[in-house]
Amino acid sequence: MQRRRIAERPDWRDYAESVGFDYHTIDGEPYWIDDAYYQFSWTQIEDQLESATSELHAMAMELVPEVLRSDELLAKLQIPTAYWDYLANSWQRQQPSLYGRMDLSYDGRLPPKLLELNYDTPTSLFEAGFFQWMWLEQQFEAGLLPEATDQFNSIQEKLIWAFGGMKLPRPLHFSCVDQSSEDRGNVNYLMDCAAQAGLATRFVATESIGEAGGQFVDDDGAPIKALFKLYPWEFMLQEDFAPVLLTSPTQFIEPPWKLLLSNKGILPLLWQRHPGHPNLLECQFDDGSAPLPPGWARKPIYSREGANVELRDLAGNRSAEDGPYNDGGFVRQRLNPLPVFTDAGSGKQVHALVGSWVIGGEAAGIGLREDDSPITRNTSRFVPHVILD
Amino acid sequence: MSQHPRKRSRSAHLILMVPATTLLVAGCSDNTVPAVVYRDVAECTQQHPELAAQCQIDYNQARQQHAQVAPRYMSRAECEADFGYNQCEVAPYQHSGGSYFMPLMMGYLAAQMFNRPQPMIVTGGVADSIRGANGYVPAQPLYRARDDDTFRTANNEPVARRSGNVSVNPDSVRSLENGHITRSGGFGGTAARMSGSGS
Questions:
Q1: Angle value at C-alpha A134, between A10 and A104, nearest 5 degrees
Q2: Rg from Cα positions in chain B
Q3: How far apart are the first and last CA of chain A?
Q4: Are the Cβ atoms of A221 and B96 closer than 8 angstroms?
């Protein structure tokens, strides 16, 4: 695993904007990196990242029915009591999941370690599935990478395949909040893949979803029978429309049971069941009251994009991200610092995180994010990767 | 060469995102661009036997759009009032009282084969994805209202009276990426009154 420089594609910004990737630069800072890439060996991809992803996914899925059967575990994960049956029903009916992304700490040598599962509203999908793919294709055309180069990225192919195999009422509505161009880019991409799979798709802004007679409707008043929602379940269960969930026949993607796996409380449960597993970090529930000892990370049970995460390295140095998620419980996870690479151009040090996608239940590819800080955030830069021995 | 199975998608192209952005990019221009109206794939293939695959791609793209963008009516009667007897089909979505109806797709609009800035068929779909950046019309469905011999877009913009080469203003060819649809809108008298968009 190496970080390399490459000439950026001329006009890549124009191209990005032409395909709706208008968030390639966020607040004047680069989000998409075109002039560098991470290079993995085949062994690293197949024997470490891909197999760890499949195994971790299987271990997580095994936990779902166990948690759903246990009042104690549901309470531990802070699932609101009123929706326990709702979650359990969605699992019993085998409502399908489309996708998820697990974040791995991996340095190219030791087994990848699971940091967390982003299994409800993962983003950076368009960047990983399409734009990264096109980057490689165009670097081939430019003659800058040898023909034998590959990429761990069948994301788009598997999205289309997964949409095609889902038994869903039609049309399939898609929603995200109105104001986020990044969320909208991800949703547009998913709609595109669904259309390529032959599904009729419609968009409704999350804020525009209505209710009529106990059923969710779109802004035309048409019933929403199936809804892809890029909006966290834990938010939905707290908001005014939550009770409508119990009466509307709407089928959701991701399904309600995914709330269990997007919850960081799943991390100590995984460790309890598979202590010492090479892809897991020691993890415990934590009430947040004691100071964090050196060599540990503390994360809220519900948090996104690095918010309210606190790290303390072995030397006792503390780094923390502020955020709004400070009222729930926490988990405490053994710190496995992200590997540090040096940007050959600027000499700057960056921390790299591997996001590994599971689509339709299968390991589908990776996307790398890097940051100047050891905590990956929503502004962390996306860097393409290749496989080349 | 590597003996490993390929680990990336065989192709990756976009069918909805690209047209939407094309129109955005071309939004304020006065330019018209060359395009072609085909009644069906056969007509396209007859003219370009060597490009049958591209004919099919354009047609498929238009069919995909059709389900999304066709004017939508609460009842078959309302739809047929605008489009004529037996000229409507059940739409793939429902309102609380039953199915919506939409007119049949009577043709499609596509970019001219020899006026495309990129090679048209490329393994991996690269050209297919890039082409939207160059400002020509995406393939899309066309409709014909009752008592009107004009092919019109889903937005009721007249395109041509017969199949063949046309010039269209990209501004007038609307993207319906957002499912921007009136409850009972579309072509013809009824639709024009309701949406305020008729000629």
A1: 115
A2: 18
A3: 10
A4: yes
Q: Residue holding tokens 């990737």?
A: A21
* Measured distance between the N- and C-terminal CA atoms of chain B, rounded to whole angstroms: 60
Q: Do A150 and B7 touch (CB under 8 A)?
A: yes
Q: Give the largest CA-CA distance in chain B.
A: 64
Residue A358 contacts residue A102 (beta carbons within 8 Å): yes
User: Which ranges constitute the DSSP H helices of A153-282?
Assistant: 155-165, 181-196, 233-236, 258-261, 266-273
pLDDT tens digits, one per residue of A206-217:
988 888 888 888
Of A145 and B47, the structure prediction assigns the larger pLDDT to A145
Cα B72 → chain centroid: 15
Option in B16, B94, B124 nearest A192 (CB): B16
- Residue of A204, A220, A357, A362 for testing the chain B interface, max B β-carbons within 10 Å: A220
Q: Which amino acid is at A231?
A: Y
pLDDT in tens, A116-131: 999 999 999 999 999 9
What would the two tokens of residue A203 be? 């968009």
Taking the alpha carbons of A323, A328, A334, A336 in that order, is the dihedral positive or negative? negative
């995909």: which residue's tokens?
B64
In sequence order, which ranges of B91-151 are alpha helices (DSSP H)?
Answer: 126-130
Q: Which of A275-279, A382-386, B133-137, B151-155 has the lowest mean pLDDT?
A: B133-137
Residue found by looking up tokens 């393994």 in the block: B123
Residues of chain A positioned with their CB less than 8 A from the CB of B68: 195, 200-202
A73 and B CB contact within 8 Å: no
Which phi and psi (to 5°) does residue A347 adopt? 80, 5
Q: Which of B41, B11, B10 is nearest to B129 (CA)?
A: B11
Q: Where are the domains positioned within chain A?
A: 2-263+340-387, 282-334
Query: How high is the mean pLDDT of chain A?
Result: 93
What backbone phi and psi angles, to 5 degrees, belong to A207?
A: -70, -15
Entry field: residues in chain A:
389
ipTM: 0.90
- Torsion sign, CA atoms A265, A206, A367, A311: negative
Buried b (16+ CB within 10 A) or exposed e, B120-136: bebebbbbbbbbbbebb
Q: Where are the domains of chain B?
A: 17-70+105-172
Name the region of A305 (left: φ>0; alpha: ψ -120 to 50; beta: rest): left
Residue owning tokens 């995460």: A309
Which residues of B are less than 8 Å from A200 in CB distance? 67-68, 92-93
| CA B134/CA B142 separation, integer angstroms | 22
Asked if B62 contacts B140 with a C-beta cutoff of 8 angstroms, the reply is yes
Question: In this complex, do B15 and A196 lie within 8 Å of one another by their Cβ atoms?
Answer: yes
Alpha-helical regions (H) of chain B: 17-25, 41-47, 52-69, 76-83, 126-130, 188-195
